[in-house]
Design goal:
176 residues, mainly alpha, Heme Oxygenase, Chain A, 65% helix, globular
Amino acid sequence: MSAHQHLRAATRAAHDRVDAHFAGYDLAETRQYRDFLLAHAVAFIPAEQAIEDAGGNAIPGFEGSRRSDALLEDLSDLGLKPSQTRTFRALQTWPEVLGSAYVLEGSRLGGAVLVRQVGADLPRRFLSARPPGGHWRAFIAYLDQHLADERAIADATRSALETFALFEPEAIGAGQ
């Protein structure tokens, strides 16, 4: 099993919980969309910063594709800013960086689906932010190349699960 296949299988339950939680928001309705973006800001901003602080810009395609700025701009357009964000630990190893990046980069795929549900008069920079075509496949190939042993895959998996946990409803409620 490849590294990315292992990550997908090992994080499936966490991914499903987060998807189920965010599926409860009506993104066409302004108030719920605002709440959706605020909930993402609580978790997304510290996770993206931790990846960047640990050298994540070295991941091909990651540099210049920061989405926290787009999220903050969308919130600003709605007259909001996050009152607080969660704290995310410093990532210590390259596999940890890749595990967390797996979650955030994978969320782009979900964003491509969700952006179609956003009300026509609402900002959508965060959900529509896309790197150049083929980015996901290149990222997966990079994961498979750099998570070459069981320990690296285990570290990446733990980090991915911790990143998903930031988005869990209990974690989000604790961060606001």
